[in-house]
Design brief:
Blueprint (H helix, E strand, L loop, with lengths): L5 H13 L3 H9 L7 H14 L3 H10 L7 H14 L3 H12 L7 H12 L4 H14 L4 H16 L6 H15 L13
Helix pairs in contact: 1-2, 2-3, 3-4, 4-5, 5-6, 5-7, 6-7, 7-8, 8-9, 9-10
């Protein structure tokens, strides 16, 4: 039995995440089994699993809280990003489809989901426009905006006006920069 309460575990986990101490972060997050911090802990646990390459566990963690409010849309978006990273297009389309069917054009999540969805059909220019609209609307989560800017850069690599050499160099730089963390930022504030 731990001497820390859920809130202490949560903030200790955030600290461990910021220090890239995955083992400590996972230990603290697994100690949160109910209460106010439970949903966020499971969400961050999924992100930590993705960070260390345990993608099946990441998907399980994300799926277990998909129906929990208010994180449902953010978790669904993160799960979609993981599916895209793992080249699981069918699953990504299912997650993204649920986000765009609501058609809330005032929501940055709608535009991010729409952009990612059309990118799966290689409609890169349209995808870039949608993602930029989402970045413009998102005033609450700058790490997510950073991820979307990386996604835009990734899409621009395959744009027809980029030379083959530039495309190869950009693609390698992006893969190196993103590696396992590909678009999976641990958000301290999911609102």
């Amino acid at each position: 039995m731990s001497s820390f309460d859920s809130e202490e575990h949560f903030f200790l986990a955030l600290n461990a995440i910021s220090e890239k101490a995955h083992d400590r972060a996972i230990d603290h997050l697994k100690e949160i089994t109910s209460g106010e911090y439970y949903s966020r802990a499971v969400y961050l646990l999924g992100a930590e699993y993705a960070e260390i390459g345990m993608y099946d566990r990441a998907k399980q963690s994300f799926q277990s809280i998909i129906d929990v409010e208010p994180l449902k849309e953010m978790v669904r978006l993160q799960k979609s990003l993981l599916h895209i990273f793992l080249d699981e297009q069918h699953e990504a389309r299912l997650c993204l489809g649920q986000l765009v069917e609501v058609r809330n054009e005032a929501s940055f999540i709608y535009w991010f989901a729409q952009g990612m969805l059309v990118s799966l059909d290689s409609q890169n220019q349209k995808a870039i426009e949608c993602l930029k609209k989402g970045v413009e609307l998102n005033k609450v989560n700058e790490p997510l905006n950073d991820d979307m800017r990386k996604y835009i850069e990734r899409l621009s690599v395959s744009s027809p006006d980029v030379t083959a050499k530039e495309s190869s160099e950009k693609s390698q730089n992006i893969r190196t920069e993103i590696s396992n963390k590909f678009l999976l930022t641990n958000y301290k504030d999911e609102s």
